[in-house]
Specification:
mainly beta; eight-stranded antiparallel beta sheet; 4 helices; 14% helix; globular
């Protein structure tokens, strides 16, 4: 993970300030995806400790989601968390459990309190504690589109697979794929992940040399407010790197940019 800030007119940045780990799973014929991402307090400026974890598991009619977030509440987690009061003391880790089944969404937000906030390296410890502590908050219920995915990762995987296949056919197929849109849920809130553009590219490979890839711009749209967030991701086209993220660029604020780069 690299990060850049722009306090005035000039970007200032640092490499290797954190990490991200993506996991593909297949359990009983249903695919799942995990994403762990965050800063490393030992390397990030001023010891910044911000991280999150999302685990999605598909089922025949929807799927389940677990999301953890340390630090400030932003983005979709803020929307899922809007009915939960911040009453706990100490270092808080927010937990969201979501379920999508037959077009009905359920989202339940709770908090775990620690003497000190765990870091991105403490995920296993946090998950072990979750096994022993049940959330007490009542689930909030909503409706979702009939074809909605159970989370952002599942929706993104759908688009990446579609892009990878289209790029192997023709420019026209890739152009058509770049207009695709997938609905998904996070807690009780509904979203859409849309492709804004996509193009073939040749990028640096892991062990030197060049590899074929697709550079694409994505947009997340919140259904209730029409708020939009964009990010860019490059994925491979050949061999073991087909459909695998090679780099990601996200600029959540005009003054902040985060980059991810696949390591050896």
């Amino acid at each position: 993970m690299s990060g850049r800030i722009r306090p005035f007119l000039v970007w200032m940045g640092r490499d290797n300030v954190g990490l991200a780990r993506v996991t593909w799973r297949d359990e009983a014929g249903h695919r799942g995806y995990d994403l762990l991402i965050g800063t490393d307090p030992g390397r990030a400026p001023r010891g910044i400790n911000r991280w999150g974890f999302v685990s999605e598991q598909g089922t025949g009619e929807g799927g389940d989601l677990l999301a953890l977030m340390a630090g400030s509440v932003v983005g979709s987690f803020a929307e899922a968390n809007r009915d939960t009061a911040d009453t706990a003391s100490g270092a808080r880790l927010r937990v969201l459990r979501g379920r999508l089944a037959s077009g009905v969404t359920q989202g339940r937000v709770s908090q775990l309190v620690f003497p000190e906030l765990p870091s991105v390296h403490d995920l296993d410890e946090v998950l072990t504690r979750l096994d022993y502590e049940e959330a007490t908050a009542q689930p909030a219920v909503g409706r979702a589109a009939a074809d909605a995915r159970p989370g952002l990762l599942t929706a993104l995987a759908d688009l990446v697979e579609h892009l990878t296949a289209a790029a192997g056919r023709s420019d026209a197929a890739l152009s058509d794929a770049a207009r695709r849109r997938v609905a998904y849920v996070f807690g009780r809130e509904s979203y859409a992940l849309a492709l804004r553009s996509a193009q073939r590219a040749t990028v640096d490979g892991l062990a030197g040399g060049k590899i074929r890839a697709v550079e694409a711009e994505y947009e997340i749209v919140t259904a209730s407010t029409n708020a939009r967030t964009r990010f860019e991701m490059t994925t491979g086209l050949d061999g073991d790197l087909a459909g695998v993220p090679l780099s990601v660029r996200w600029q959540p604020r005009w003054w902040l940019e985060v980059g991810l780069h696949l390591e050896e």
